[in-house]
Amino acid sequence: MFSFKKNLGDHLEFFLILLFVLFAPSISKADTTVTTTVSITAIVASTTTEEVIEEEEGGVSGGGYIPIMTSPSISFSGIAYPFSPVTMLLDGQDLVTVYAGLDARFFVGMPSLPIGNYTFSFSATDSYGRRSIVYTIPVKISDNLEVSIEGVFIPPSISVSQGISNFKIEGETAPGALVNIYIDDEPIPSGSVFSDMSGKYEKDFSYSGFLKGFHFAKSNSSSGGVVSVFSRILNFPIGVPFGIADECDIPADLSDDCRVNLVDFSILAYWYKRDSVPENVDLNKDQKVDMSDFSIMAYYWTG
Questions:
Q1: Beta-strand (E) ranges in 173-229?
Q2: What's the pLDDT tens digit per position in 94-121?
Q3: Reduced to 3 DSSP states, what percent helix, strand and coil does the chain have, rounded to the nearest 5?
Q4: Ramachandran region of residue 299, left (φ > 0), alpha (ψ -120 to 50) or beta?
Q5: Pairing of strands 145-153, 73-79
Q6: Helix, strand or coil for residue 162?
Q7: Of 61, 1, 74, nearest in space to 32 by CA
Q8: Which pairing describes strands 66-68 and 191-194: parallel, antiparallel, or unpaired?
């Protein structure tokens, strides 16, 4: 059960950001964190000159757009799961769904966009119906370039199955990827395994060594020198009744990553005083986003 945060620093941060967004709505599309390497190729449409901008490991940190100086078209390529549907969202709205190949690689392109700031998001669903977290990339488009963004690496799917003496963490990622599994707050992996040629991975853990109670797990994967962000956080019990689902359920978790932070805030801020608000974004179910919805988000804020 989630309780109200009493740490003044956490809430001061939230409400300062809220005041800023209300007076400068453009920031609502800028708050995100991407921790994989993203390669951007910008090609001026009227010449053959090509400029390649390579982001260092760590990608785009919170608050910044990927600057693109020149785009009559934009494309993305990356890694999901073998044959998985990959949905691309533009500013929080479903735009197109494509399918990854046998090697888990996917490509999606779209025609020209007006000059401006955009938030592109990606999610994938594996062969068992397990959905990834939403992977978000903010992009600023100006002038007249063709833009190619490479290195999108959707994090693994994850689930848990429990037996009499052990439990199994499993999911899907790219074929032959190294998957690191983290349990609770351990800073180093609790276990590692390579996915098979169909992208499936699984790792058994003994109940011995774990205290009775609720625990959580997450995973990430690496392939071709690129490391994904973490998967969704998986909650599971050991030695107690199974009182919760294996996926968390926080009402204000708009990005579906088991946390309520600046990513969710940017989504909610985007819909502030807009029409046709998605049902999951309308936290108090009054068909609009206003201060009441921000108050609800503050209640569930995890940072």
A1: 178-183, 191-194, 200-206, 213-223, 226-227
A2: 889 999 999 999 999 887 788 888 889 8
A3: 15, 40, 50
A4: alpha
A5: parallel
A6: strand
A7: 61
A8: unpaired
